[in-house]
User: Fold these one by one.
Assistant:
Number 1:
Amino acid sequence: MFSTPTGLPRVGRFEPVLNHIAEEVSSLTDRGRPADYIPLLAKADPQRFGMAVAEVDGTVYGVGDWRHPFSAQSITKVFTLALALSLGGERLWQGVGREPSGNPFNSLVQLEHENGIPRNPFINAGALVVTDRLQSLTSDAAGQVLELLRAESGNPGIDFMPEVAACEASYGGRNAALAHFMASYGNLLTPVPGLLAAYFWQCSIVASCKDLALAAGFLARHGTRANGSTLLSKSQAKQINAMMLTCGTYDAAGDFAYRVGLPGKSGVGGGIIAVVPGVCTLCVWGPGLDRHGNSVAGVLALDRFTTLTGLSVF
Ligand code: GLN
């Protein structure tokens, strides 16, 4: 129904497809349930939906609640990884693997079998290692992630949400267990309490689809930041995209790759970012989650986007 956007006139080229998708999503009856491990997320309305597309030149399109800030949660793990790789390089991989886990994002079991080395940077254990390395390099991992998001999105209003950070800490027993367990294997460089605080602050960042689609632009620009400087080498950007494809949507990454065919990273706040290398970045938000923790409306919207436009990495 829609021709490939690269063949359409420049002005408004993604608008028809976004409007079409929003209409399809509006008739979705079962949207899953918001995350309920902290009360603040459980209150979100599953009927809300937003979607933004940012082209590599920073032109941005959106539909629905695309300017509405939501809890970015694990989407921030992509930005922490980008900074840790940019500043610390390859030695990161001594402490975290690059394989899909096939387990829930907060699982403890695999860690013992694998001697405290988490499977990948996007499950909680792996993200804790990445935050630890960034913390050891900068002493303010969460602040660095926030700065990167602000700079790349051009929105200085993106911020932490202290109430969410506090809730994460008070319900954070499992993340604390993961951190202490890895520390017992000698796989953390910084003290556990400070690391957990940095991780919870990072999870609490609130941003909109517009902000996050723009902020992820360096992944579609092969590592180049919005101001033209280099955050990652071409090869590092490719590596992060590959890892998003294989590990970015938890134990549903295979199904996401099948349906959407793009590198993606979800968060339990109901957001998902996705990358069409060389073309654009996307962010969708719908707070209702499936049993893996991925937004039901979000996965559907991305599935429809790649189907209708033909834009995919395959
Ligand atoms: N704050 C959440 C946690 O650490 C983030 C999880 C997620 O978005 N998958 O449990």
Number 2:
Amino acid sequence: MREQSIAEKYEPVIGLEVHAELNTRTKMFCGCLNDPLEEHPNVNVCPVCMGHPGALPVINRDAVLRVMRVGLALGGEITAKCHFDRKNYFYPDLPKGYQISQYKYPIVSGGMLNGVRITRVHLEEDAGRLLHTEHASGKESATLVDYNRASVPLMELVTEPDVRSSADAKRFAEELQMLLRYVWVSDADMERGQMRIEANISIRPKGTEAFGTKVEVKNINSFRAVEKAIEYEIVRQAEALEAGEKLRQETRGWDDVKNITVSQRSKEEANDYRYFPEPDLPPLELTPEEGFDIERMRVMLPELPWQKRARFGTLYKLPTNQVEFFVANPRFADYYEKAASELREWVDGSADDEARAMNLLANYLTSDFQALLQQKLCPIEETLVTPENFAELIKMIHKNEISSRVAKDVLMVMFADGSDPTDVVRDQGLGQVSDAGALEAIAQKIIEAHSGPAADYKGGKINALQFLVGQVMKETKGTANPEMVRDVLTKILQ
Ligand code: ADP
Ligand code: MG
Ligand code: ZN
């Protein structure tokens, strides 16, 4: 069945489950370092995270605070009593034989992101990492285990089945990643496994209410894979239904090489986790008396991605793609805003003029300047170009004091030594030549040196003018005002 006819006949229903490793200093229930960059295996471990008998866990309050921040940002409700449960299962990456999680009382209930209702957000601990080694000559293949990640704080967010397309699922995941970074909860790097997405997918005939049988897809390790895995499932499920098959509820894995989902286990094989309240941890009251001042935390939240999006759209009147760039790159956004407030002081013209200047600033920042930063591997916080100086450069372009060609060179100098653009332009004589007398003399010289094209122009070949303009620009090292050059040349030639 072709994808177009599937889209006409069926509607996808999607719910997402997202895990994110929290960027706390220490692990969830012990003092071991939570260091995702540690490459040496099994150094950040202790009797507590290894589940030795008699070792007692202690709740990491920073992890609780982080999940609360996420909940507040999403507009969810924070539970008054925070309580943990044991989820029992065996797997070699789980040294304790159980995972401490939250089953009955998640920290957060409800909330909304991108129009998708949030069911819950809870706190649990991560498992270790398994490394399957290749079969080497003379050696058996083996599986190695690294427990550095065991018991690292892990947040799990579950959505209602409100998502209706693969593109919306991807957008949700991207927005959530930004949110987690904005509220300093997780680095949420999908390639590093700091953010992991499971997609629950079913389809139903358009116009009907009842949900179809859902399939849960795991091993999705990029935003692109979110989209591709869901698209693959929609087609697979529709083709099965069209062939008169019955779908079964199962867990499937995304194969990033073959671009397909593969069945892992069916509902009948699902684990019975025998959840029960964690006996080694007391309930935690999320009240101001216990150091969890919800109202204060709500007030202290930073600007959130959607708030920044709205503000940048209205305040600076930038096009959508640029607004999105700044929302996704808050450090560039900060730099932009500092420069913008300087630039405002200089362009005291009309609202139109100001909007043009703000756009020019955004254009230069996201093109030439960003390219230079990337080329020199320089983070924007470390550049020698101050926002004030950058704003000054933009002002000079905006007011036609320098040409855009000269601006590139000036920016290079500023980038190399942090100098003031006004000084660079003055010292190197790069100011736009708008002196009519000076330009006339140069134009006269060029016309005499290129009598052929000059004659062509007089004979009606309008294009010949462009060549002469180019020669004048070259002669003035790009400092001439191109419009004036054009005027002066036509005047002389007539
Ligand atoms: P399970 O018990 O299998 O984990 P849940 O009811 O906890 O199922 O839901 C898990 C996720 O699956 C949630 O994100 C939820 O929105 C989503 N979901 C539930 N039913 C469906 C369905 N029929 N189609 C798509 N997603 C669904
Ligand atoms: Mg589930
Ligand atoms: Zn430990």
